[in-house]
C-alpha cells in the first residue's frame, strides 16, 4: 500500500511511552485497531477533529501533534529567500 501522507510519529511515540495500545484508541474513537494503525502510519485518512479531540481529552495526546505542518524542503528554502 502506498503512503497517502506523513505518519503521525509523535503520536505513535506518545502512545508507546504511555503504554496505550491501538485497540484502546480504537475503542475510544469507535473504529478498528487496524484503522488506527493505518492512520498513524499515513496509509489511510487523517484523524478527524472529533477523533483528535477525544484522543487529547481521554489520553492526553497534545493537540499540536495532530496539526504539525510538513513543509517540503524546497518550499522552506524559497520562503527564506523571499523574506531576505
Describe the protein's architecture and organization.
It is a single chain. By secondary structure, this protein is mostly helical. It is built from 5 helices and no strands. 11% of the residues are buried. The mean pLDDT is 84.
Strand composition percent: under 5%
Helix and strand element order: HHHHH
Mind summarizing the main beta sheet?
none
Q: Structural class of the secondary structure composition?
A: mainly alpha
Cα(first) to Cα(last) distance is: 41 Å
State the low-pLDDT regions, or none: none
Number of helices: 5
Radius of gyration: 15 Å
Query: What form results from the Cα inertia axes?
Result: globular
Number of strands: 0
* Mean pLDDT over the full residue set: 84
Helix content: 55-70%
Amino acid at each position: 500500500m502506498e503512503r497517502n501522507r506523513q505518519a503521525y510519529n509523535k503520536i505513535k511515540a506518545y502512545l508507546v511511552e504511555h503504554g496505550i495500545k491501538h485497540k484502546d484508541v480504537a475503542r475510544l474513537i469507535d473504529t478498528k485497531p487496524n484503522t488506527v494503525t493505518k492512520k498513524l502510519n499515513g496509509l489511510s485518512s487523517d484523524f478527524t477533529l472529533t477523533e483528535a479531540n477525544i484522543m487529547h481529552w481521554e489520553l492526553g495526546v497534545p493537540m499540536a501533534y495532530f496539526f504539525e505542518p510538513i513543509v517540503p524542503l524546497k518550499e522552506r528554502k524559497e520562503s527564506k529567500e523571499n523574506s531576505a
